[in-house]
Write a structure and sequence with these properties.
five-stranded antiparallel sheet; 12 helices; disordered C terminus
Length: 434
Amino acid sequence: MANNAVINNIYNYYLTTYAPKTDTKFDTHKRSELRGVYNSIVKMNKEAPLFIVDTSQATKEYAVGLKENARNFRNTIASLGGLEDDQLLNQKTAHSSNNSIAEAFYIGENEDADNAPSFDLTVNKLATPQTNIGKMIPSGDLSLSQGAYSFDIGINGLNYEFQYNVYEGDNNLSIQQKLSRLINNAGIGLNADVLEDGNGNSALKIESNNTGVSQYGAHMFNVSDNNTSKTAGSVEYFGLDNIINESSNAEFLINGEPRSASGNIFTVQKTYEIHLNGISADDDDVANVSVKPDVESLANNITKLMDGYNSFVDKADAYAEAHPKSTRLVREMSALASLHSEGLEGLGIKLQDDGRISLDTDKLREAAGNGQLKDNFESLKAFTSTMLRKTNQVTLNPMNYTEKTVVAYKNPGHNYASPYVTSAYTGMMFNSYC
């Protein structure tokens, strides 16, 4: 168990530090899918030559980043309908008539979209977090004696103790900054920041990540040092328990019926995901939510697909100076896209010399209006399917785009699988810990 914890910490460190980490429903897999990934890795390594890789810190960061960027592009494709051929680019799109009040996203099944309800939404109040702002005190002074102090924070039904020391030379600002780091690094659902007024005074601000009325008590979180293990006095001195804003629920009307939610993001009838952005100016200031027609949904999916493609190419190109083989990936992406360029240009989709794709939205809307969009749907699907296969390849073996020296080629057809050596990528990351 200890070794597993160490490995998880290492992987999460690289992931959160060097690559964007976003979890979606497409990051969960069936047992058969995981078995397929394992079999693909074993097959890949069975015939791959033996080589020596650069195990520098920079290469590790690059490999993790490349893999995660490919995974993100894959998830973008998956979010546009699914990963099967008959699902590609078929995702329905929701429409909000007033994005300043609320944005809408369709989350239902595509086959149910024709029966999806439409409704008017009026927003009376946004959900808010709890905010504590301490006393604004002189930054350069300090009235606390040297020694060990502690205080307790209760949140989500759990209690956490924070301990710190006051040393000679500390002042109010340095202690407030220390407390801010302690709270932020604890990962308990709170954000802390030091506020300064420009006149040499500072205060500690603590705010909950969650919004809405707490189910664990009167407040979202409580700060106290009444029963703490070290010296008390921090809470009173810094004013850590001074609540400026209580957390509250969002309040809104759906077709005139009052509703509430603990957050500003919620679902309606398992069909729409609603993101509240503002408050209605009056009763007539509403957002009508509905499902876009098929052609408009497809045009929206194309825009997201091209944005995802360009984002992946941009991130790969950003590694080019330090890792020249990354340019090979950009060239490969460009070459694959060019195979479908003839069918895409009629939709305003054009491959650029730098490997990126430009999208003429006016031409795309024109194509949607005259039926050309549907006529070129198969070319779009073929392009999307090609990109999906490429992202899967990069995800399985990002080491293919790192600097390495081939030592020996294996005898084709006479090799044994190496089930305990999943890939050079994972081996490079974890060989010092296993």
